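Listing S7. Sequence submitted for prediction.
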Amino acid sequence: MKKLTFFFTVVFGALSVGADNRPNIVWIIPDDMSANFGCYGETAIETPHVDALAAGGLKFINAYVTAPVCSTCRSAFITGMYQTSIGAHHHRSGRGEEKIHLPEHIKLIPKLFQEAGYHTSISGWPGAKSKFGKTDYNFEWNKEVYNSSLWQDREKGQPFFHQVQTPGGKLRGKDEDGWEKIQARAEQTLGSRTPDSVVELPPYYPNHPNIVRDWAAYLDSARMTDHMVGEVVSKLEEEGLLENTLIIFMTDHGISHARGKQFMYDEGLHVPLVIAGPGVEAGTVRDDVVEHIDIAALSLGAAGIEVPDWMQARDILAKNYEPREAAFAARDRCDETVDHMRAVRTQDFKYIRNFLPNRPYLQPCAYKDAKDILITMRQAYKDEVLNKTQRLLFRETRPAEELYDVNADPFEINNLVDDPAYADELSKMRERLENWMVETDDKGRMPESDEMFQSDMDVYVGGLRAKNRDPEHLQEIIDNIDLMKQWAEEGK
């Protein structure tokens, strides 16, 4: 009996020590932010903390989200699945009486960590102990997949999986009040605000004072996000956890701007992805194409947890990883605005399929149309002061297909679909996308049911009414809903 007791003590004691030494995993994910950090070539501002992570770890320069809007993007990375495969592809869907349920075999990433003995937590930063960070999943889920909002609540020696979900680009708000708020905060915290004079706008935006000021405020939101990253790293170091913690920094999609968020151009899809911690070689840069859902698989892999066979994410840190040839993305309904786009991105080309080509580029969308930058751009278009490139977004219809040489044309302005020199590339990209839609069971191939649309719109409108929101804004949403129904009936 003594020998047997000794055997169990040695074996299970070793297992316990091994479990304790498994790395902690920390995700830092800001909202609405593109790769405007020094390590990604941004020169207008300094971002020392994200840059330090990149210098001490691994930077991906070709990381893309599978959805250019938050809830669909988040539904994807928390499952390691394309949102289109699990029916979570419409933004803010399943919020009313009609619900979305995941297939029984699919588990959320924090649940898989829990089952492996990890403590799971999610917060904003800084955040109150009782307050969870942003989730925003489109399907029904059990909040018990998170043990708490703080990693400090874990058992002594227990490894943890923690998410820091922060406002990011949302910090700048939608108008002058929001711009001043974040810039004043940057000035107070960092000693300065970003001046308008350093702003360099993409060529498709007019050099209007409101557009420039908004971008300067956005850059200050990036600086404040960088400062927050420094706080998280300092906290881990202070608690003696940094050396054994894998930190993953990524944003949930690109900047919320006219051609960014909700669109399939790189401004909406391209995100920073920086990974630092145990097992990651310092100063590494990779240019292969990766998808944002891959953070699910790589996190499990780093913790020694088997990546489920059903998961579409890939462990991009695995020794046997075979690089993707392309990244895929989908945009469907966003709030009240119905749309249907798909895209495929390689290192050299971007292909976009517009399934509703008879609709305008800038469909009515109360959320985006309330932003001062959109108000300014629409007025500039009416005043006929925009150049040819800046007028691209105001076309009344769209081409069914778009093809861009992203190396020669990084701002995706010159559509090559009708250029015979690119006919072979067009055919190849078209085939890639069609195969992906079939192989991944893209649920967007069928339109959203009238019942689900109405269910979500009832919640959307009802929620604003309950908060006594601006009656004009509320009526705008109602009018947009009616317009979406009208266009659908017309086959537009």
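Caption to Listing S7: primary sequence and predicted structure tokens for the chain studied. The two ends are 79 Å apart (CA to CA). The longest strand covers residues 24-30.
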